[in-house]
Amino acid sequence: MKKWVLILVGVCGVCSAQATDTLFLGPRNLRVSEDGVFSRVEEKPAAQPFDNLWAYKLYPAQKKLTGRGVIVAVADSGISSHVEFNGKNIQGQDFTQSASIADLKNHGTGVAGIIGARGVRFTGIAPEAQLFIYKIDDGSRLIGPQAATAAINTLLTYNEQHPDAKIAVLNLSYGVHNGGNVPLTNAINRAHDSGVLVVCPSGNFGYPGVHYPANLGSTVAVGALAADGKHAYTNSTFGPQLDFIAPGERVYTTDADGSYTLMSGTSAAAGFVSAAAALAVEGLKKKLGRYPTAEEIKQSLVAAATQVPGVPREQQGYGLIDVNKLEEQFK
């Protein structure tokens, strides 16, 4: 025997009787059960909780390449001690006259974590890369090209003295709109010509015009991907000089106070590309039997890049580096 139920909706009085095996749709904001019980449905579903580790899920957790045997220099605001760096051979030098490489700006520590965190709460993209910290920002926001130039010249001297254990990648967190400096440009060009890939953020003003020195042909310019993984980050500066896009909004990383933080901006994005470059160097060294040139490193990254659908080319360059495609090059 079929059971009949009477369902009352709204103030108009009556609605028709329905059989238990018939779906009653009713108004779009009501849900009706077979027993005739109806309940309101939220028209706007609750927002999903934010995934702190969204950026790292774009890179495989298990990788054959880890950055082992590769040195990455991070020219930024320094670094502070953190459990994610315990046991890592980190060397540093201050170029700001602050007499310490301690991070007073809470910036360099975050970039270093993206590159090389060892995996207590999260794992950096190149966890086994060695980090050299060049402090060019004392936290006062008065960063000058002189400190960056001195850091690069020091890097070049180090590489001349250590030809078998060179710094192969430089993450240079420095940029100015409509800027330029001859000594710094010359130092960057020398670094590039000597085999160092210099990675720079494109800028955080969100309008066209990639910042200097990211706009140089001898650097790699990186823009930021939004946390939805589908758009460019709103504040990511863009233009034809942009080479790659990488996560740059609410990126989980190490904090200068010893905890963790969410970091946004193209400097965070540059950290991902510098780390990917370290993986490429590791693979190329094994394949070639020598240190690769800066152009060989870049071309390896270009070959591994994939366009983010719907993002204009000038906002992503060659696209997002796919580490799986990168590793395929060295099988």
Characteristic terms for this protein:
single chain; 331 residues; alpha/beta; Rossmann fold; seven-stranded parallel sheet; two-stranded antiparallel ribbon; 7 helices; 15 strands; 25% helix; globular; disordered N terminus
Question: What would you say this structure looks like, in words?
Answer:
The protein is an alpha/beta fold and 331 residues long. The protein folds into 2 domains: 1-46, no CATH class; 56-328, Rossmann fold. The protein is 25% helix and 18% strand. It has 7 helices and 15 strands. The protein has helices spanning 108-116, 145-161, 182-193, 266-288, 294-304, 313-316, 323-328; strands spanning 4-5, 18-19, 30-32, 38-40, 71-76, 91-94, 130-135, 167-172, 197-201, 219-225, 244-247, 251-254, 260-263, 305-306, 320-321. Strands 6-7-5-8-9-10-11 form a 7-stranded parallel sheet, sandwiched between helices. The protein has a two-stranded antiparallel ribbon with strand order 1-2. A two-stranded antiparallel sheet has the order 3-4. Helix 1 (108-116) packs parallel to helix 4, helix 2 packs parallel to helix 3 (182-193) and helix 4 (266-288) packs across helix 5 (294-304). The longest helix has 23 residues, at 266-288. The radius of gyration is 25 Å and the shape is globular. The termini are far apart. The relative contact order is 0.14.
